[in-house]
Design goal:
heterodimer, A: mainly alpha, binds protoporphyrin IX containing FE
């Protein structure tokens, strides 16, 4: 134990000391002097208040700049074209254009949620906790995976719109609806793993590659289906979008 | 050159101001006012400590307050590093509070019926003071929360904040992410305009396409085969009662676990020889 610890808990000569309990495991505070901590009041409080004030200011200015939208009253007989989901679900709607609806809208989201939840049980090493991207290598893998995913997705979207998988294989429905999409997604993930392997990554660094793939996919698909899909969800340039195609 | 002139430094300005009789009188009034407010039984029964300018009072102000006691009295210096958390968890929590307040206010003026919902939203703009502002803040705060909760998840992932002993809090977090999306989704229908109607129709059709169980799940969600009055009531109940209730509970668990897990993760916990074998 360091000297500082002695100062905080001076030995009282009028007391007797004994070992009361043995506890297994380590604590984050073991062998750390008190110089590693500060009082929550005022240090943490100030930051929390600043965060709240900053957020409030941002919301007020944003609200002055743009009002919440309200279109005509709901009418089941007048279809919106394009009919888009809320923007945070648009990535799923983009997937929907390329595979069976329940694969895109139910199975993939459920698999993603489960995959996210099991991350801590796959990567159990404590070697690099608290370090952004684990290491230089992790950073490189993240960047690399982001580039790879973006290029693959843009390629796939363009391919399926201009060549169309369904014009190549249409029968039986299970092929373009399920098997081809699953093989393509799985194949690209395996390929990503194989390509990352040359850096001899740790488990965490492999996960960084895959997680980055997920984040970039969410982003690219959202952008493509929000800004690049017009009437009938066909590809369009953002400046050619019908004004009602932007859904916030 | 500078130091030869009688410099009007900040120190000198401060001294001129603080020595001025008006300033001194002001200070006296403020401190008398403060004493009048704080030196009485009512105030002291609520706030059991003096002004938090000593370490003792700074500890007490935290654990004597129901609102503040979710914080530890002391935190690791490292956890205040903006470049570690980017404040994203705190901002997300604050946005949730903003949403509860503006949302409760919107409930005063909104009836979830197909006949009234849309006109109620319209009249927010025409006959309710600050109606448009409150609705707009509610909407943009909801969008922003979807963004910040996701960025927070990314921050935790990329810093390895999910590692032992924080596995469970990560799982709670994933549930919070899903809850945030569901809250946004159920709120989206309530204005009952074309945007709302078709977004929910598109999304629930996806669920309906699921083999065998799909249509059954869709009917449970919508209370019928189409987006109609029953769906509006269901989405409303989910949006103002069930989901926010769950959210409040889970956020409580999330914060409680942060403390139980020893505060925020930090590289001080990194164990160079722990490769994740059978250490437990
Ligand atoms: C309503 C949603 C959420 C709220 C209000 C919330 C709030 C917070 C706050 C205030 C912190 C303290 C540190 C910080 O600000 O970064 C934190 C930490 C944490 N959050 Fe969240 N969070 C939410 C969602 C999530 C999600 C979606 C995840 C992950 C999937 C998650 C996982 C964690 C973990 C593991 C920690 C501990 C991190 C560490 O020790 O470094 N939380 N959360």
């Amino acid at each position: 134990m360091s000297d500082q610890t002695q100062d905080v808990f001076p030995k009282d000569p009028r007391k007797t000391y004994g070992l009361m309990e043995l506890v297994k495991g380590t604590s984050p505070m073991v062998e750390k002097g008190p110089e590693d901590t500060v009082m929550s009041w005022p240090h943490l409080m100030i930051l929390e208040v600043l965060a709240a004030l900053g957020t409030t200011a941002l919301l007020l200015f944003w609200s002055l700049a743009a009002k919440a939208p309200l279109r005509e009253i709901a009418d089941p007989d007048v279809t919106e074209n394009p009919a888009k989901a809320a923007w945070y679900f648009l990535s799923l709607q983009e997937l929907l254009l390329h595979m069976h609806a329940s694969l895109a809208g139910v199975i993939i989201p459920v698999v993603v949620i489960i995959a996210l939840m099991v991350i801590p049980y796959i990567d159990r090493s404590k070697r690099d906790i608290g370090i952004w991207f684990a290491s230089k290598k992790g950073r490189k893998i993240a960047l690399w995976s982001a580039g790879y995913t973006t290029v693959c997705l843009i390629g796939l979207i363009l391919f399926d719109d201009f060549v169309r998988v369904r014009s190549l294989v249409n029968e039986p429905e299970i092929l373009p609806g399920w098997i081809i999409p699953i093989l393509v997604i799985g194949g690209l993930m395996v390929l990503l793993y194989v390509l990352i392997r040359r850096w001899q990554p740790t488990t965490r660094e492999v996960l960084i590659g895959l997680f980055t793939g997920f984040v970039v996919t969410y982003f690219v698909l959202t952008v493509s289906s929000l800004f690049f899909r017009g009437m009938g969800m066909h590809l369009t340039w953002p400046w050619d979008l019908p004004p009602r195609a932007l859904t916030f | 050159m500078r130091d030869r002139l009688p410099v009007l430094s900040y120190g000198l300005i401060a001294e001129i101001i603080t020595q001025h009789p008006l300033w001194k009188r002001g200070i006296r009034w403020v401190s008398r006012g403060t004493e009048f407010i704080t030196r009485n039984r009512v105030w002291q029964s609520i706030f059991r400590q003096g002004y938090p300018d000593t370490e003792e009072n700074q500890s007490r102000v935290i654990f004597n307050s129901w609102f503040l006691h979710i914080h530890p009295v002391k935190v690791k210096k490292h956890s205040l590093n903006i470049k570690y958390t980017w404040g994203l968890g705190v901002i997300t929590a604050f946005l949730f509070i903003v949403l509860v307040i503006t949302g409760a206010w919107l409930m005063f003026f909104y009836v979830p019926s197909v006949e009234q919902a849309y006109t109620d939203i319209q009249s927010l703009a025409t006959s309710v003071t600050f109606g448009t502002l409150m609705r707009t803040v509610h909407r943009w705060a909801a969008h922003l929360m979807v963004v910040t909760v996701f960025l927070h998840m990314c921050r935790v992932f990329y810093t390895g904040g999910y590692k032992t002993p924080r596995e469970f809090n990560w799982m709670v977090g994933v549930m919070l992410w899903v809850l945030t999306l569901l809250l946004s989704f159920t709120g989206y229908l309530l204005p009952w305009d074309q945007l709302a109607y078709w977004a929910i129709t598109v999304s629930t059709n996806i669920i309906g396409s699921f083999p065998v169980l799909g249509e059954w799940m869709r009917v449970i969600l919508l209370g019928g085969h189409e987006v109609g009055p029953a769906a509006l009531i269901r989405f409303y109940t989910m949006h103002i009662a069930i989901l926010p209730g769950l959210m409040a509970i889970l956020v409580g668990v999330h914060f409680w676990r942060i403390r139980k897990d020893g505060g925020l993760s930090s590289s001080l916990e990194a164990n160079k020889i722990d490769y994740g074998g059978s250490t437990r």
